[in-house]
Amino acid sequence: MEKTWEQLQEYQPLVIKTVENSLKKDRVAHAYLFEGSRGTGKKEVGFLLAKSLFCQHPNGHKPCNECTNCRRISSGNHPDVHIIEPDGLSIKKWQIQALQEEFSKTGVESNRKVYLINHADKMTSNAANSLLKFLEEPSSQTVAILLTEQIHRMLNTILSRCQVLTFRPLAPKVIHDQLVAEGISSTIASLVSHTTNNIEEARELSEDAWFGQSRSIVIQLYEVMVTRPTHAFFFVQDQWLPHFKEKEQLSFGLDILLLIYKDLLYIQLGNEEKLIFHDQIASFKQHALQTSTRRVSDQIAAVLEAKRRLYTNMNPHLLMEQLVIKLQEGFKLV
Question: What is the pTM of this model?
């Protein structure tokens, strides 16, 4: 989905501000390195910068997203904007050499040229050294945009020749609002946005039936522990463990359970605007009134301890039984 300047500004305000200032002052760097985790908007901002440089009908420094150049850049078909992706598992030397050869020619439609290297950390050593020579002799009309999720794997000599812009993890509200705008229910979007700060992963989770079932099973376990405590062990065996089979899955289930207890705490502290499980607010309010802030804090600590012990090769069945006991001890009428 095409992102506007304003949307990306909400995603990455500091990055967009830097790009904006460079464009306004006509001081676009000859090489940028966009670094940050997957799904934080690196490629989108790279395309946005390229459009700003080629747009036929810009609104100040902002591209129109509608002219021929903007549309061709979006589709990857602009003759003076070159995109390099890994060839298999790595970016090869021949790919950089082909780029250099292409850039030795005059621009097809202007003197300006832009190249974007996705997963720049996957360059072979020969490819990285070839790129380094390219960066050492920059043309005033050439802009390089390198994207990486693993900046520590980049050569220091390349880093020193780039303006590095760090893309921060997206805020939950940004992810929630984007998912809702794409047609995802607010109930699912609210939970997804607090389990990942990656917009791409958030979309995948929102459309995953396993995720929806996970939410339901965690809520059911919580309700069983509160209303039918003697059935909790049976629920763990019959519903929880068959669903959360792998350690990563079990850890994910514990993350959701943790968010339930955080909601109880938010209710007790009067921060209801931070609630995640909006569809459970009536029962959660009732439960929050029946226990103390100290006990909810202890329950949160118990879930965090279970997550820690999960990776010490502890038996998952035993882990969950012990957790249930601790959580039920923490929930007593006051």
Answer: 0.70
